[in-house]
What does this fold into?
Amino acid sequence: MSTLTMIANGLKLALVPLALGALAACTSSFRADVSRFESQLPAPAGQTFTVVADDPGMAGGIEFRNYAQLVADQMAALGYTPVNNPADAQLLVRFDYGVDNGRERVRSRPGFRDPWYSSWYGYQPIVYRTANGPRVAYIPYRPWGYGWNDSFFGRDEVYSYTVYTSGIELKIDDRNGERLFEGQAEAASTSNRLQYLVPNLVEAMFTGFPGNSGETVRISVAPEDQRAGR
It folds into this structure.
């Protein structure tokens, strides 16, 4: 089952709660949990490869080609050689991506409270006379006063935001169909823009590539318009 289908059906990996625990409201940054498994993946030495859609429904799409190019650029930077024809490729790189519909989170924060005024006190006007005429002063009195520290004004503010789970999958087979590498990266964030999520997840996937087989690592993914880093 492809990553896009898994996310759409709400089937979350065990990695997702970790990412959700690290997510803070009102921030656009997130951390990607990357899990990678490798078996006899050859060290880069110019081997040819091509990137194809793991989900047939994405094959040939302009959007997919855009994100596939990101994967190809990362593979080429490692020392592999890209080719267009899968028949000419020694390595077949299967790629998939997606983002879910999001889940609403509700949080609260303390409302405004004036530390100099208690709701137990109110103000009562007192008129007094001076040489320049009558004046009005306000003095505190106890019964049922209303001030900025009243329960109404000091009430906690409740707000909500949406958390989206995004993910990519990367699989590498040799020309005989033997699986050499499997990797998946997932993140929880307040953004659902694939144009932002996929490039950062791809960069997270290739950080320290291919990594230690069976190890899950947490990689920081930058806010929008910034680069990802370890």
Residues 62-78 form the longest helix (17 residues). Strands lie at 30-38, 48-53, 81-82, 91-99, 103-109, 122-130, 133-141, 157-174, 179-189, 215-221. The longest strand covers residues 157-174.
